[in-house]
Amino acid sequence: MPTLRESTTAVVIRGEHVTDGFTSEPYEAGWAIEAVLFLRLLAPPVRPGGMIRLELSADGFNWATDGEPVALPKAEGEVVFRRIGHFGNWLRLRLEMAEGSTVQLLATLHLKG
Amino acid sequence: MDAMQKALIRANPKLSRFDPLGRIIYFDDFDEGLQGWTSLIGNYEDNLDRMHPGYRQLTTPMLSNLSFWDNGTHGSVDGSYALKMATRPKAGAQNVAIKRLTYVRACPIQIEFWFTFKPEASAQKLLDTDLRSVGILLDLQNDDYRIMPHLRYLNAFEGQRVEKWQFKEKTVPFERFSEKTVTHYHLAERDWQDLSGERQVLCYNEIPTKVNWQYAKLGFDLRTMRYTHFECNDVAYDMSGIGALQIDAMPNLRGMLNVGFFVESDADRRSSFYVDSILVSGEWD
Known about the structure:
The complex is a heterodimer.
Chain A: E1 7-18, E2 27-28, E3 34-41, E4 51-57, E5 63-71, E6 79-85, E7 90-96, E8 103-112
Antiparallel strand pairs in A: 1-8, 2-7, 3-6, 3-8, 4-5, 4-7
Chain B: H1 3-11, E1 23-29, E2 38-39, H2 53-56, E3 62-64, E4 67-68, E5 72-73, E6 82-86, E7 94-102, E8 108-119, E9 131-141, E10 145-148, E11 150-157, E12 160-168, E13 175-176, E14 182-183, E15 192-194, E16 214-221, E17 226-232, E18 235-237, E19 245-248, E20 256-265, E21 271-282
Antiparallel strand pairs in B: 1-21, 2-7, 3-6, 4-5, 6-21, 7-20, 8-16, 8-21, 9-10, 9-11, 9-20, 10-19, 11-12, 12-15, 13-14, 16-17, 17-18
């Protein structure tokens, strides 16, 4: 009987009304070898647009940007995802949005290792 | 427990540091994964915005190998990983991890766990008062009542070392969302009482990136819904007069046997509670 790999879903933004510069709490997942980030809006956006930056950290409090930004969903019901690999021990998300713009966001990391 | 069972448990390196009752209900070593430990989510209807703010702050637990910027990976008691709950970086912030079962017998139960706690090592100071508390709660229901034992180790409060175990037995008011859904924030910073007049100094060590694991053992009787015993390392507490939160039974919770861990920060810095392993046992034939 093979031992199944660990697989877990972390809700890193749970319906918070996020604005420019918002960062999710650090999520430690050095055990995982892959992750998928899913993004979904929980309410129609006041003004569509904005990006998510993926950030990596060696210690959980000093951060570096990884790769190209991910565009936020433009409408309620639209699902956006990004495959993530080679991320070390900590992950977090940073919002880049126009001034005054806000969305109610659900962001989840799906980790396996 | 007969001599054969005792010998088998003591010969097993993973179990020998525990002292279980006759039946092991579950044994979670977090080297094997999260094993059913999840975030506590508050009740709500229609929109997540309606969740009580105390619950909205709670985030998903992690598997941590206790890695630190200045000294690398610390690891856990007998492997690499531990369950980790971390607060947000704000004084008074809390986080909770929970595992939800139901009980098959109303019987004596015991919860044993190996744990440690640390503030985030984001300043090169001792930081020994940055973490307010770590604690354990049970959420139980029989035919008549919902009973919620809460115990916490109050490490520090408003910047002062306290180092005492505390309990809570007063209920807090419920808020109603609708005919069917209510909420109450039982972890609010109120109504805590000292378990003993004595301090219990737990080994914090000398910088935020050195970690020592501790042991605790909590006994509770599901027949009487009373504490039976509580020990932390080599200190045993008299639990005979200690009560728990008690409210009338709720519609959909009969037989509930939830165990939760929680952590609170005392400074604008993240505080983390790590659990290496937990063994929950019961006594029935």
